[in-house]
Task: structure prediction
Amino acid sequence: MKTMKQILGVLLGAGLMVGATAAMAAGDTKIHLDSPNINMTDRNSLQRGAKTFVNYCLSCHSASYMRYEHMSRDLGIDPDVVKKNMLFAGDKIGDLMKASMSAKDAAKFFGAPPPDLSTITRVKSVDYVYSFLKSFYPDPTTPTGWNNTVFEKTAMPHVLFPLQGEQKVSAKAETEGDKPHLVYEHLGGGSQSPEEFEGTVRDLVNFLVYLGEPAKLYRYKIGFWVMVFLGFLLVITWFLKKEYWRDVH
Ligand code: HEC
Result:
């Protein structure tokens, strides 16, 4: 009986540990995270996200499971546009989306390696990545001059600064659940309004979700035709039923 209890105790403990690790990996934070409300069937949004990703992220981060060619096909981006505007010098359209800076060099420069972004929305959660990208603020005490309310003292600089500009935490609004929902005051300096910037980050996160699971796009397409087929079958079955019952009445 005692051993049974011990075994149960160990199992329960292990379960709790796995649960806790999963919660941390999912990007557990002290503050409330926003949800981007993305739509993977919105091709224009995915295309805009891809552009932002290539222009602002690919210098440090790779997406090493994705080839430019594959992306171009999936998102309907003209291969010539990809070749002209999205490839680094020397890269070919059949190449994987590799960062221009090696992870080792980047780790040396920034003090932490920029993670591969292929599966980041699954590793950290969609809401985490969305909130993280919106939450940089100036901080003269850090090496980069930036800090982040979602990931304190992150080694990543605020690379979207030219778009968002600067902001500061203005007040702690009511808590949502048990976590404070921070409110920011926009200080200007970027080319986009706060609303436009939210749209830019939403598109970018949409693209990152696609990177994490490109097959999802096909499943949506297949799902549509499966529904059409089932609808068709329903009509035929209904006529068949009518035909059978005609002789009974
Ligand atoms: C100048 C180099 C650089 C650029 C450009 C850059 N990052 Fe980063 N990024 C980093 C570094 C360094 C880290 C590691 C931060 C750490 O561990 O403190 C990081 C970490 C991250 C993380 C993980 C955060 C976490 O909680 O572990 C995400 C998500 C991310 N970057 C997204 C992006 C996106 C999206 C872009 C493009 C808009 C981008 N990064 C552009 C350097 C960069």
User: Anything to note?
Assistant: Confidence is low (pLDDT under 50) at residues 18-25. The first helix runs from residue 2 to 25. Residues 17-242 form a domain with the Cytochrome Bc1 Complex; Chain D, domain 2 fold (CATH 1.10.760.10).
